[in-house]
Write a structure and sequence with these properties.
By secondary structure, the chain is mainly beta. The protein is 11% helix and 42% strand. Strands 1, 4, 14, 15, 16, 17, 18, 19 and 20 form a 9-stranded antiparallel β-sheet that branches. The protein is globular and about 60 Å long. Keywords: Isomerase, Metal-binding, Zinc.
Amino acid sequence: MNDIIVLEPVLMEKIWGGSRLKQFGYDTPSDKTGECWGISGHAHGTNVVANGPYKGLTLRQLWEDHRELFANEEGDEFPLLVKIIDAQDDLSVQVHPDDTYAKEHENYAFGKTECWYILDKEPSSELVLGHNASTREELQQMVDDQEWKALFRSVPVEKGDFVYVPSGTVHAIGKGIMILEIQQSSDITYRFYDYGRKDTNGNERDLHIKDSVACSMVPHVDPVLDRSSWKEDGVAIERLIQEHYFTVHKWDINGNVVRENRSYLLMSVIEGTGSVVTEGGTHTLKKGDHFIIPSTVANYEIIGEMKVIVSETTK
């Protein structure tokens, strides 16, 4: 296949979701739409291919049956998941396991390390990022005593910020924040705290205190990020992160960019319009589009004025 893989988004309603995903051109099911899974091979929500010879198949099926599209990378699961999240209300305070804990306790290949590019926020919006306990015993005691305000660490955030959330990080996306999230392809979440909220049936959502305490990084340590920037082949590139599971860049395109393809790339348009050209065809691009340039594409050209988040597994 010498063309890109265009993916149909998967929209998910959430108790904390809103209506702002309509800004990306998505046909949202309600005004409680919290997530768009833009690039996903996960069993809980895999995208359908919208073009080319594999139209109608899922990304999960492509990973299983056409590994040549992904540089013959090994693994039972498509490794990454890219989402856009609209938090109309605070998300639960939660933590995700690492790979070892996920395999032992959930029988799943991946834990969940993730990162966030802040697309938008309200003036008073904050994240929960980390906690104030010095030892696991202190963490357990503060949880037992329900000292939530003293335990959780709130931090301000601005549009354009980038946040790295390795597994074991206590965190919550705050009310009014929109993010693009790149993560390991895992849907395992342990809730510490959920504000006593009730679902549409009047039930409080389950908490997972034992797993949350067991998985949490203690003490919390903020990661140090190196957001390096440079110009290359007519595009201004900023490396947001390069770590064990994924490498993420932001491309600011103003004109045209011609590049040789090294592997397979996950691309999400967060601003602007344009087009992408391969030997297999030309596709228009707009804010909210997600697509994959497979490893079978040797060269490609992107034309327009756009900001694109480019993700790949770290080789």
